[in-house]
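Final report, closing paragraph on structural work. Over the funding period we assembled a curated collection of sequence-structure pairs, and we close with a single example.
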Amino acid sequence: MITNMLAAWRSSFAFSMAPAEHWTLEHPAIAAWRYRAETLRSGPDDHLVTAAIELKQRLARNQVAALDAQIECGALAGEATRRTVGYDLFDTQRLAGLVLGQGMIAQMQTGEGKTLSGAAPILFAALQGRGVHVMMPNQYLAERDAQALRPAFRVLGVTAGLLREDDDDAARQRAYRCDITYGAGYEFGFDYLRDQLAQINASRQLGAEFTTTLRGKQSVITGRQRGLAWAVIDEADSILLDEATVPMLLSGPPSQQISDQRPYQIAQQCAETLRLNTDFELNSTSSRLKLTPVGLARIATALAPLGPVRLERPWNDYVEKALTANYIFQRDTHYVVLKDMIVLVDESTGRLHADRTWRDGLHQAIEMKERLALSGANVTQGQISRQRFLRQYGSICGMTGTATGSETELWEAYRLRTVCIPTRLPPKRLALADRYFTDRDSKWRAAVSAIAEVQATGRPVLVGSRTIQASEGIAQLLSGQGINCQVLNGKQSADEAALVAQAGQAGMVTVATNMAGRGTDIRLGNGVTERGGLHMIGLERNTSPRADAQLAGRVARQGDPGSYQFFVAADDSLLTKFALRASRDMVRMPHREGEIAQDFSGAVARAQRAAELESELQRKKLRAMDSSFRETVGKLYGVR
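Its predicted structure, as stored:
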């Protein structure tokens, strides 16, 4: 009976090409998976290894249908994790595993167990013998999942390696030679660029070897990676969409240090005296800045006292970069200063990236603004967009709790369909109406009052902030009211998961940037469930509704109770950039202690749509540039 149902399902699946699909827990493959798992339960570990080896051989000889192999992998991986981790799979996790095995996006609510859901498709990819890359949003999650599942894979005779940020080439090669390789998503992209650069450098010595590689023949150069066969992506919306607005740049050491800092000094002095809307214009929506003819005239003679000076770029560009550093890029929002160095902050995740720098003099302009020693400009050795890199894999799939609203783009950019996985238990998440304020100070005072009120009931409170600056500002106000809190804002990345895991204890107040501890399970302490569970307060709405959903998803996991509420002010960056008229209307509204009674949810939603559209257009522009680049290379070398 199950065999007939599977045959009918295969036939219907072959014609499904929609960007979003609906699967149910009555899927016949789940029953087949569950039945096969029962037959494995009583056997010794050796039987699992034997079954895995036999399946690998059948896959190599094309003697098994893909769906049948996925069901077998699911049963093997599920039994191995039951024996090593101590958890049996739920049908919701089996359904997610099937979706991933078919090369799709599984949207699972936070707390539904994505780590164990990924074991089956990872094993399915690994047994095909070409390696599988498991991409995580950060180093901590990669290490956590590798450690959690490595014992289960070992029972099945499958090896699992881990990429670490400080690994040398030998360690990276060992990790890539394993059947499964875990790592932060960007590690795989940069290793790909390093391998490409090594091939290019070798081609200068080997003559026609590089041309041979471009024409599709196997290169004799040994790199770190052994190909791009499979990618299983956790927090897929973050890696596939949010991080895809910026290309990956592989930089080498500076070709030379800044020999003359005087142009940067004069540019900074000019930036401090030039007048907005007279000497320069600022587009707050696009964050772009340009000198006016009046401003160009004012700066024309600024360099004259220096005498002859060598400029690497036009003089007006120096000044415009200095203005950008002063008027657009904010400390503790776009960057932090650590150990007298500028460290970039990823705006979508709140994480610090010490290995990234800005180009074309902007990094040096910000260093001059902060009165730091100027670093040399790094030389870009290679670059690739995340879209183009990920599309080179033979097969990709992913998991996330927030794909809703992005199904069409995931299909257009990656040909990935999205399937929404039902929750195991009915959700008990309570959404409270947003509160609106005339300015940030009024909003923060109200937030502190709300935090104190909830904490007094014994419930824990998680406070989500968009920026490091906001997290430290609200923490200072809480401290002034005698409320102890734990602050997580990217500066404590090594400890963030452990600290977030404690956020569910009674009376705990945790202030965190939006993505700090993302992927970490927050378990409720004793008595918290009876009091209503974890409460989340968002200090502002984010440009992406998916980021808001991630924050809201931190509460009420696995059927627990919980609630959330967002506080919005007229001077929040979302409104000042994408809904300026609504922002001005809010300021003029009648209010009580800065709080506005009128509902502005429609204006917020429109602002988020505008922000999302801008990001999507930026990603489409990168894809178009990729296409143009490939066409140019194809004409140059006569290859596709």
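The first strand starts at residue 20 and ends at 21. The first helix runs from residue 2 to 13. We thank the funder for supporting this effort.
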